[in-house]
Amino acid sequence: MKRWNDKRWLGLSMMAVFILFIFVWGTVSVGRGASQKQQSAKQPEPMATASGAAVDIQKLTNQLLEKVKYETTLELIDSSLSRGMVDLVDDSVMELYMGEGTSADELLVIQSTSETNAKKDQAAVEKYLKEMKQSFEDYIPEQADKVGQAVIVRCGCYVLACVSSDAERAQEMIVEAFQQ
């Protein structure tokens, strides 16, 4: 009988150690994941303009939405959907504003963590717009032409792209914001 109790005690002890190990491992893993999320949520430093003042990217985005002419009302797309559309660097943050399905009008505002990443993000935006143009060519050719005239501006850690029949106005506003 003593042997049975010793074996049972040994088995229960080993199971308790195993459960404790899993608990500690899980706690450490969750803690690491939270700290990595905090690091990945790190925003780039505001880009300074020629005068040394920081660009207020949210203000610029609002101006582009209000003062540039679009055929339809642009709505902010959920980030999980937009990340699936444009293949950005992992740490980059994007706001994608889109119109209705029959209109190619869009505004993309991307903040990268470095200029190197911004260059990669710019290439991803160019690829995205090329694919978008090809898809519109088959069923709404005038929208494909609009996509072909899209404005893409990269300045420091920011990439902005605007698809609109008023793209020249958007380009002027973006360049002006970064030159002030």
Specify the overall morphology. elongated
Total DSSP E strands: 5
Count of runs of 4 or more consecutive helical residues: 6
The quaternary state of the protein chains shown equals single chain
Helix content: 55-70%
Strand order, sheet with most strands: 1-2-3-5-4
Structure report:
The protein is built from six helices and five strands; from the N terminus they run ααβαββααββα. By secondary structure, the protein is of the alpha+beta class. The protein has two domains: 1-41; 57-179, no CATH class. A five-stranded antiparallel beta sheet has the order 1-2-3-5-4, sandwiched between helices. A hairpin with a 2-residue loop joins strand 4 (151-155) and strand 5 (158-163). The longest helix is centred in the first third of the chain and has 39 residues, at 2-40. It is elongated.
